[in-house]
Design brief:
By secondary structure, the chain is mostly helical. It has one domain: Orthogonal Bundle (Cyclin A, domain 1). 51% of the residues lie in helices and 0% in strands. α7 runs antiparallel to α8. The longest helix has 19 residues. The protein is globular and about 55 Å long.
Length: 470
């Protein structure tokens, strides 16, 4: 029986005020069922939708495949007999996984769980003294039974939650701003509509998603709501309760990807320039092809980066990428994007099929799951020589160019923390400063982020002053 879905409506601009509207989070009226429209022939101009991000909109995120609407109610999926969910909870859609995937042997899975439980019990010691082992285990894949706990520990959101008891409930009780709540409500049914948690319009998954996104607009009223936050929050909700998912989202927005979801989206534009420069180093053939047809990074990498590939990759690959992302930070996002471009545009044979902007953009916007094998993708991500220091050096270059051509940035790119170890060092340094201690980062292999970052000459001078005082 053919599937039926409502036509997805384009979202409103997430960074601009709109006329106030009722803030009821649930829609109980039965929606009229329309036949599935035939997919229109793509138009080259449609690719310029992504350019709307330059003015602070995210309209391109609404048209992510044909599954752009909720597919049912609490008791049934539009009256259709629903096939069995896959092991990740998907009922269908592009990210449905066939049962042909091989699983780990039970003994191996249990051994990994025991190792992770041991790390949880002595977390700070592992991060401080054996972080390479932590990183290796994240690259192998976190056991699904412990993924929620691991993501919270890696992002330090667990500590944030414990330091703010009752804060999430307090935010929930606030009324919120009507313009954000209206947009959030319209976006709920677009988030993974073929996943069992979000398939039911007004179901518990959509309710929890509404709670998280609303709470964030109150927690950070200067940022409000960005539509790319919804799929990120939805992925977190698939693994943990709403309060835990909220604090994990806070860490992603403030520590891992600061500025990505702010008005103007300067951070994602800046990272687009960094990404394109890194592409020239890692895959010159793909770089020249994109340059030839004037395909700017903002046209294809925006959804990749802002949604952390949750809309792009097969689900098993999404989870592996997120495991590494929480551990190693934004460099994993850069590496995944570079690996994808290398796989799609990195050979003469592949480029023969892409004779213009239209064909190239079709390839980039519709990555076939058959092209991506989990083991090969992870191995290429691990071995790609794109480091934190390389990203920071290129960031400095692009910030200078930005200031010369556009003026000052409103966000601070140096605030970004590169994963678990950087967050640990930042936390330790903050504790040392608050207690009146010395600059403990002088002997640390990881330079501090943000305003405390200093040049090598400054560090030498500080070290000399410290030695003289002794």
């Amino acid at each position: 029986m053919p599937s039926e879905a409502r036509k997805a409506e384009l979202p409103s601009t997430p960074t601009r005020a709109e006329p106030p509207s009722p803030t009821v989070p649930l829609i109980h009226e039965p929606a009229p069922v329309l036949p599935m429209p035939k997919r229109p022939a793509p138009d080259t101009l449609s690719y310029l939708e992504s350019a709307s991000l330059m003015s602070g909109t995210l309209e391109s995120l609404s048209g992510l495949g044909e599954d752009g609407s909720s597919v049912g109610s609490d008791s049934e999926i539009n009256g259709l007999t629903v096939r069995r969910t896959d092991k990740y909870g998907f009922l269908g859609g592009n990210q449905y996984s066939d049962s042909g995937e091989k699983d780990l042997r039970v003994e191996v899975a249990r051994q990994r769980e025991v190792k992770w439980l041991d790390m949880f019990h002595n977390w700070d010691k592992w991060v401080k003294h054996r972080f390479q082992k932590v990183k290796l285990r994240c690259r192998k894949g976190i056991p699904s039974s412990l993924r929620a706990k691991a993501w919270q520990m890696l992002s330090n959101s667990q500590e944030l939650l414990e330091a703010n008891p009752g804060k999430f409930e307090e935010l929930e009780r606030e009324p919120g701003e009507a313009k954000w709540l209206d947009i959030i409500e319209k976006d709920l049914h677009r988030q993974f509509p073929f996943h069992e948690m979000f398939a039911a319009r007004g179901g518990h998954g959509q309710q929890d998603l509404y709670r998280i996104l609303k709470a964030y607009t109150i927690y950070r009223p200067d940022e409000g709501y960005c539509q790319a936050q919804a799929p990120v929050a939805a992925v977190l909700l698939m693994h943990m309760p709403a309060e835990q998912a909220f604090w994990c989202l806070v860490q992603i927005c403030e520590k891992f990807l600061p500025g990505y979801y702010s008005a103007g989206l300067e951070a994602i534009q800046l990272d687009g320039e960094i990404f394109f420069s890194l592409l020239r180093r890692t895959c010159p053939m793909a770089y020249r092809h994109l340059k030839k047809f004037k395909i700017d990074p903002i046209l294809y990498m925006t959804e990749w980066f802002m949604c952390i590939f949750s809309r792009t990759l097969p689900w098993a690959c999404v989870l592996r990428v997120w495991d590494m992302f929480f551990c190693e930070g934004v460099k994993i996002v850069f590496r995944v994007g570079l690996v994808l471009l290398k796989q799609m545009l990195g050979s003469v044979d592949k480029l023969r099929e892409l004779q213009g902007m239209y064909e190239t953009m079709e390839r980039l916007r519709n990555i076939s799951p058959d092209m991506i094998r989990e083991d090969i993708l992870v191995q290429e991500i691990i071995t790609l020589p794109v480091t934190e220091s390389l990203i920071e050096r290129e960031c400095s270059v692009q910030v200078r160019k930005w200031r010369e051509s556009r003026g000052e940035l409103t966000h601070q790119p140096a605030r970004r923390l590169h994963g678990t170890r950087a967050i640990f060092e930042y936390k330790r340094r903050a504790a040392s400063i608050s207690s009146g201690g010395s600059f403990s980062f002088l002997g640390s292999p990881i330079p501090p982020p943000g305003p405390l970052r200093a040049s090598s000459k400054m560090l030498v001078m500080l070290l000399r002053m410290y030695l003289l005082s002794c």
